[in-house]
Amino acid sequence: MSSMTKSPNKYEVVKDTLVLILAGGRGSRLHELTDKRAKPALYFGGNRRIIDFALSNCINSGLNRIGVVTQYAAHSLLRHLQKGWSFLPQERGEFVDMLPARQQIDDSTWYRGTADAVYQNMAILRNHYRPKYVLILAGDHIYKQDYSQMLLDHISSGAKCTVGCIEVERKIASEFGVMAVDENLKVKSFVEKPENPPAMIGRPDMSLASMGIYVFDADYLYEVLEKEVETPYTSHDFGKDILPRTLKEGVLYAHPFSRSCMGRNTEGEIYWRDVGTLDSFWQSNIDLVSEHPQLDIYDQRWPIRGNPIQAYPSKFFYKKANCKAVDNSLISGGCVITDAEISHSVLFDHIIVKEGSTVEYSVILPQVTIGKNCTLRNCIIDRHVVIPDGTEIGVNLEEDRQRFRVSSSSKVVLVTKPMIEKLQGKKIAHEEHLD
């Protein structure tokens, strides 16, 4: 990698950088779980939300000028940002600003893609924030990264655009944008979701995939966005439209995630997860309860901040001598567990589990009540759900498909409040008919 005559000063670089977190996505592969909330606002790990990872990475990296671009079902996300992320001192030029879709082009045009979301806020960037560099992040991934190292590499390489990249198995690389690079990490080719992904040099089973993280020289970003918006038949997308343009102009470089990863597993491997499906969301949460989890949420060297609920301590009542009690689980505050068996599960705050019930390998979101003598296995239970006494979920998947949402792998069952209300409505109607 070529170097500049003078090494960049980290303090000056982060001070001159604006972070834009793109948090407007719906997350349609999560189905009913994101019916009323944007994917970045989804709960994770017992008392955090997904967007807390990107925000915490920014704070830990010294990047305290942050704009969060929102669009779909943004109420819970905005409320979370207001309550949990309003501590930065504005008088020092530090902030977490909210940038909702403003229909700037016309009355019916919302953000049309990731690039358009930045383009529609470009006047604010130029006239109000005035950054020298712009770091663009997705708000819906789980990982720990020192973005300042990526910024320093961007400047040292002489790039105008740098894309964060991660090594993935070639057999699954078709789900990503894939690139080939030279020995200086200059990108030589970039293909969005290719059928036959290019392999890494010397590693035929691996490919280099885009993480959806970009650093731009601000002036160059404005220039390329103005060109893109005038291009016919565009998707208004960074991966599909902007990166190919920067590649053609010879200013695109790659930044390997391994250079800036701050969260490795017990084997020393980098950790990055897209929790965009029911299976991946469930698995990433369940992994946290293991003795040696892939992600260490207790590591205070790179803390993941959020807006923890100020709840009373959880209470556990066990009167039965033969009850298994709680094993390998995360239990947040304000929970009341009575003669119930909880194993390999994540319970968020204010969960009630009544006597005789069993919860195994399940993710229970806040303010859920589980009745007496219930059995829950391999479940995701959405917020505010009340599980009736004697309910079995995850025991008979054929029955579950008629009542709830079963994941594509037939491994995980999603239960939401409308599903339970519909089920109870059917039961009430049937009972009234019998009467």
Automatic annotation (TrEMBL):
Pathway involvement of the protein, from the record: Glycan biosynthesis; glycogen biosynthesis
Domain Nucleotidyl transferase span(s) in chain numbering: 20-288
Enzyme type, top EC level: transferase
GO biological process: glycogen biosynthetic process
EC number assigned by the record: 2.7.7.27
Annotated catalysed reactions: alpha-D-glucose 1-phosphate + ATP + H(+) = ADP-alpha-D-glucose + diphosphate
GO molecular function, one term: glucose-1-phosphate adenylyltransferase activity
Keywords assigned by UniProt, alphabetized: ATP-binding, Carbohydrate metabolism, Glycogen biosynthesis, Glycogen metabolism, Nucleotide-binding, Nucleotidyltransferase, Transferase
Chain sites annotated for binding alpha-D-glucose 1-phosphate: Y111, G177, E192, K193, S210
SUPFAM superfamilies referenced in this protein's UniProt entry, alphabetically: Nucleotide-diphospho-sugar transferases (SSF53448), Trimeric LpxA-like enzymes (SSF51161)
Domain of life: Bacteria
Function: Involved in the biosynthesis of ADP-glucose, a building block required for the elongation reactions to produce glycogen. Catalyzes the reaction between ATP and alpha-D-glucose 1-phosphate (G1P) to produce pyrophosphate and ADP-Glc.
Membership in a protein family: Belongs to the bacterial/plant glucose-1-phosphate adenylyltransferase family.
HAMAP family, per the entry: GlgC
UniProt protein name: Glucose-1-phosphate adenylyltransferase
Organism of provenance: Phocoenobacter uteri
Gene, per the UniProt record: glgC
